[in-house]
Amino acid sequence: LWSGILRNWKDKGITSAELSVLPRSHNHPDDNTDLLIAIAGEVHWTLEEVEQYFVDYDLVGSDDGHPYYYLATFSDETPDELKRIAGLNSSNQLHMGLNIVPDEDQGEFE
Predict the structure, then answer these.
(1) Would residue 47 count as lying in a domain?
(2) N or C: which end of the chain has fewer CB within 10 A?
(3) In a domain, 12, yes or no
(4) 18 part of a folded domain
């Protein structure tokens, strides 16, 4: 951080910074920690908020098998402020780029 975004922090007028320690992922199929962290960065929420309101994601693609994007769905209970911050549509969904899902091979779209 000190050699990146916080370099010359006094010159940038930064007076404080809030940092969080994120959990490490475990290398087994049921662990989605890396995915949740990536989504949290994409929607500008905390990891805890993503864990609470993220429901699922689907790969959307063409009829001939080419992937277009991921469609993330969030809970109907998501607070309006978080919906606004993330830019969710009226169905509580968000289009996300193909690189959002860590280590997943898009392969042939079904």
Answers:
(1) yes
(2) C
(3) no
(4) no
Residue 5 lies in a domain: no
Instruction: Print pLDDT tens along the chain (110 aa).
Output: 556 777 887 888 888 877 666 666 656 666 788 899 999 999 999 999 999 999 999 999 999 989 999 999 999 999 999 999 999 999 999 999 998 876 655 444 44
Q: Which two tokens stand for residue 84?
A: 């606004």
pTM beyond 0.85: no
- Structural domain harbouring 53: 33-100
